Amino acid sequence: MSATSDPDGEWNTVSEDVRYDFSVSGMTCAACAARLEKVLNRLPGVEATVNFGTGKARVMALPDAPPAADMVAAIRKAGFDVPPGALDLTLAGMSCAACAARIEKVLNRLPGVEASVNFAAETARVRYTPGMVEPAAIVAAVAKAGFTATPVAVRDREADKARKASEAAAELRLFWLSAGLSFPFLIQMVGMLGADMASGHHADLLPRWLQCLLATPVQFWIGRRFYTGAWSSLRGGGANMDVLVALGTSVAYFFSLAVVVLDRHDLHVYFEASASIITLVLLGKLLEARARARTSAAIEALLRLQPPTAWVEQAEQLVEVPVEQVVVGTIFVLRPGDAVPVDGDVLEGESSADEAMLTGESIPVVKAPGDQVFAATVNGDGVLRCRATSVGTETLLAGIVRLVEQAQGGKPAVQRLADRVAAIFVPTVVVIALVTFLGWWWFGGELAPALVNAVAVLVIACPCALGLATPTAVMVGTGQGARAGILVKNAEALELAEKIKVLVVDKTGTLTEGRPAVLDARMAAGVMRQDLLALAAGLEQTSHHPLARAVVAAAQEAGVAFSLPEAVQAVSGKGVTGRVGGRMVVMGSPEFLVAQGSPLSADLLEPLLAAALTPVGVAADGKVLGVLGLADPLRATSKAAVARLQGLGVRVVMLTGDHPAVAARIAGEAGITEFRAQVMPEGKAEAVAALRGEGLVGMVGDGINDAPALAAADVSFAIGAGSDVAIEAADLTLVRNDLAGVADAISLSRATLGKIRQNLFFAFIYNILGIPAAAFGLLNPVIAGAAMAMSSVSVVSNSLLLKRWRPGKSD
Questions:
Q1: Is pLDDT at 227 greater than 90 in this prediction?
Q2: Residue 626 has what pLDDT?
Q3: pLDDT tens digits, residue range 412-470?
Q4: Which among 338, 419, 506, 632 is annotated as catalytic?
């Protein structure tokens, strides 16, 4: 379903599926995510995926699904929250207070929106639920009501960062308070290692009443988050890490309290265990949160490059305005060293741009009139006058961020095992703890050791490490990919890329440059190459035909000067005639030159035909001067990229609709031994389907004709400069026009999946070894708490090692 409005601003339901991406706060471990996912999937017509690593809930709402507000209510009922977003708008077009009331009414009818409009200030303050509605829809609703709304600033991401920073500061204060109250227990632990060794009884170096006084605020004030989290989890029919911590520390605390109240000096108290465990868990959460924040560093680095302001032309003057006020069509100016505020076309000036943060290419790209500039890239030494073509969420930068966040929120198949284990993990641990308690009490006959070992079992178990193993690696991997110009649309594609056995490549625009160039020239006796190019370029310089542009470019590269033509006449599909420098020049296909009375000799023509080049003859004043051989040249990087792919164990197959001779030439130059020529678009899809029987098949292309084959492949790659249809059909987009990006993607996939497997191994082996050790009395609860706190940190830290990955690596 999707929301639409009628002329009165009423919102109706349309029979279409829609996706919501809710930011969820309050999740403390993977079990929380599994429980929330279960709660949401209980709603009719809802298919939900919750990612603990990213803190996102992705919900696909079918036509029979409840309103989005009910989904948010379900999230909150489960004990979590969807933090609201805030948007400030500057309004134009209001003529009276009734206009303000009208806008307020329209906005408040949007799902998840609370708006207040100030007529005097011509502003609106909007609070909304991200995922139910986005800022673009809010602005569009105002526009549909007949007014204009301009965001004062795009604060969503910054507001989210500020909220997280505030929460982190509060958590840090609680930790230090907890640490301060727990520190005296170090004296008590020294006593446990001292006199007890000989006597068999624990020495109380701190009075028991003081221990109780110190532990109580830690248990019930600082540790209240564990109780509220456990209650919300149990009320929702699940169990999470909070249940384990609350249960374990409560057993230790209340047993100790009973000993104090009953004045049983023959029994030890475990106030130090309950307080220390909570303190250590808080420390682990702080370290984990700090490490998790670093997983999105690549995206943050991109966003920081986009400038907050732009220099625009207003009334023949340059004025600095907030970048949010730049709209499509605005003329803006880039001074030397300026960061580009929005995407645009160059109107005047020449310069270069550093596009490394978007494409991974370190060499500056020359910019001249007609070229594009992209937001967040950096202008070189020249001054450029540009027209904005894409702003806000439509820029290439915003698209990259959107794709990366989308991929980070996905779940590859490798996480399914971890999800299944996490769902039953906590109940299983509680059963093991109960069995441990009964076993030690039954066979040992003493209550205290039984309780201590049961508490150690509860505390050592950590479902967080399992939940963080995959998403943190995916987040770092996709971030590194974005920095290298590899945009991953979904996590499943990142997982499958490492398994590609056969890669099908298109020829034109993928292996080749996608535009013709002069690759050879054969001159008649006594004719110099520069003279041939001067006449040919002079005649063709007014034409926009791709072959004509190639001839002009060849002359310019050779430094040849040429004159303006006169009396030019073009014969469509055959050739052109005209006067250049006082000479009558004829240029075109061999057949056209025959018709003009200047046939080409075999010694000039046959070498070009043998090389599968397109011959273009040139004659002047009835005399043949020579023949130019044109073709779409192989990209300079394609041969090395093919060799690298083959070195990775990938079999490369080329499919093209071109002539067999042309296909053979390109395949030979690229080092490809398998190719098929004259293949139609539907034939490419059939060929890809046939190859799937030989292993996982990848497909890379750039044109509309490649879209069926891209959709048929197991993993598909689109060259960034390709058509929108190809990019939409592909799983991964290569921002750079370079086949080496496919090898980089496979390398990145292998590195990411390697980290995921390591993380899952660490998480499983930690619990497999730790829980039995605690059950058999080999772990003190405090040590168990420290180990549990550090297990999640170690998994996230291992994922962060992916930052060492660099494009160009073989594996």
A1: no
A2: 93
A3: 666 566 666 666 777 888 888 889 989 888 887 777 788 888 888 877 776 667 767 77
A4: 506
Nearest to 39 by CA among 237, 242, 240: 237
More confident residue, 368 or 543: 368
Residue type, 782: V
Mean pLDDT, residues 645-658 taken together: 88
Q: How far apart are CA 192 and CA 448, in angstroms?
A: 14
790, 793, 780, 791: which is closest to 248 by C-alpha?
780
Q: Which two tokens stand for residue 752?
A: 């990411």
695 has pLDDT over 50: yes
Considering only residues 296 and 741, tell me which one the structure prediction assigns the higher pLDDT.
741
Structure tokens at 478: 């996709």
- The arrangement of strands across the sheet holding 148-151 comes to 113-118, 123-128, 85-92, 148-151
Nearest to 81 by CA among 90, 89, 91, 71: 71
- In this prediction, residues 799-808 reach a mean pLDDT of 84
Q: How many CA atoms lie within 13 A of 504 on its CB side?
A: 34
Helix (H) / strand (E) element for 801: namely none
> Is pLDDT above 80 for 189?
no
Query: Does residue 456 contact residue 781 with C-beta atoms inside 8 Å?
Result: yes
Burial class from Cβ neighbours inside 10 Å (0-12, 13-18, 19+) for residue 769 reads: exposed
**Per-position b or e across 211-246, b if 16+ CB within 10 A of its CB:** bbebbbebbeebbebbbebbebbbebebbbbbbbbb
Sign of CA dihedral 591, 592, 597, 601: negative
Stretch 637-660: mean pLDDT: 88
Does 343 qualify as catalytic in the annotation?
no
All domains in the chain, ordered by first residue: 2-158 (3.30.70.100), 327-390 (2.70.150.10), 496-512+635-730 (3.40.50.1000), 517-631 (3.40.1110.10)
DSSP strand pairing (614-620 vs 623-631): antiparallel
- CA distance linking residue 541 with residue 439, whole number of Å: 93
347: how many CB neighbours lie within 10 A of its CB?
13
Q: What is the pLDDT of residue 332?
A: 94
Indicate the helix (H) or strand (E) that contains 14: strand 11-14
Termini Cα distance of the chain: 44
**Burial class of residue 298, CB neighbours in 10 A (0-12, 13-18, 19+):** buried
**CA distance linking residue 451 with residue 774, whole number of Å:** 11
pLDDT of residue 362: 52
CA–CA separation, 345 vs 529, rounded Å? Answer: 36
Give the pLDDT mean for 90-110: 73
Q: What is the pLDDT of residues 728-747, one digit of tens each?
A: 667 788 877 788 889 998 99
The residue with greater pLDDT, 1 or 666, is: 666
If you count them, how many residues does the chain have? 811
DSSP-derived secondary structure for 469-493: HHHHHHHHHHHHHHHTTEEES-HHH
The predicted-structure confidence for 526-559, as pLDDT tens digits, reads as follows: 889 998 999 999 998 887 777 888 899 899 988 8
Distance, in Å, from the CA atom of 432 to the CA atom of 286, rounded to the nearest integer, reads: 28
Q: Coil, strand, or helix at residue 546? A: helix
**DSSP character string of 108-173:** HTSTTEEEEEETTTTEEEEEE-TTT--HHHHHHHHHHTT-EEEES---HHHHHHHHHHHHHHHHHH
Query: Which two three-digit tokens encode residue 803?
Result: 């930052």
Confidence of residue 7 (pLDDT cuts 50, 70, 90): very low
Residues in contact with 712: Cβ distance below 8 Å, sequence separation at least 6, in sequence order: 685, 688, 689, 699
User: Which residue(s) pair with 115 in the sheet?
Assistant: 126
